[in-house]
Amino acid sequence: MATSGTTTFNLTIDELVEEAYERCGIRTASGYDLKTGRRSLNLLLQEWNNRGINIWKVELIAQALTAGTSRYVSEAGTNDVMEAYISNNGTLVNNITSSNDIALTKIDRSAYASLAGKGTQSQPSQYFIDRQTLPVIYLYPNPDASTYTHLKYYSIKRIEDAGGYTKDPDAPFRFLPAMCAGLAYYLSQKRAIERTEGLRLFYEDSLQRALTEDGARTSAYITPQSYYPTVS
User: Fold this and answer.
1) Which pTM value belongs to this model?
2) How many CA atoms lie within 13 A of 42 on its CB side?
3) Is 179 within 8 Å of 44 (Cβ atoms)?
4) Half-sphere exposure of 63 toward its Cβ, with a 13 Å CA cutoff?
5) How far apart, in Å, are the Cα atoms of 232 and each of 227, 228, 229?
6) How many Cβ atoms are within 10 Å of 174's Cβ, its own excluded?
7) Are 128 and 138 in contact (CB under 8 A)?
8) Alpha-carbon distance 3 to 128, whole Å?
9) Which residue in 144, 211, 154 sits closest to 181, CA to CA?
């Protein structure tokens, strides 16, 4: 039997809303159903921003350094910064013949506040993220921007809003089942409260499977710690 030969299946926003209503045992019959469904979908997507790192929203950003300036506002749409390093160029494509990158250590607010000599210009070695509406990156020491001219960081971007009813959701195909399940759970709280608990359990299970699949497949090595007590 011949297969379709395609791997492009997706759902538009109105199809997602319709599927979620059907899981609640409700047939959509008005424009208001679509409107409230899209609003619930936007809330669901904001919840996903709070769930942790969404791998498909990680983007490498290059920011030119200014000598003596330690404060840099992250790019629009950034939710958090995963890791950062300084580089001698602003290219976002690995080039082993010309790139020289130095990783920076991420510190918390208290550690940054206790650092002395914040006005000193040198090669940065640490950074602190101030989680404002747009996260602000503080480097320490202040960059001299001589050899290392750019700050590069992995921005964790916000998931885009649902948008128009004919738009596709800002999520990879592997998250479609979890999105439908989550939206059905959200809508049940308004229209089918008797199904809420069952839909919640199904949603959490679907989302966990999607998050597990979304992880990076890398090798992990566990080394036991060696301890040599002092012998008197």
Assistant:
1) 0.83
2) 11
3) yes
4) 26
5) 16, 12, 9
6) 13
7) yes
8) 52
9) 211
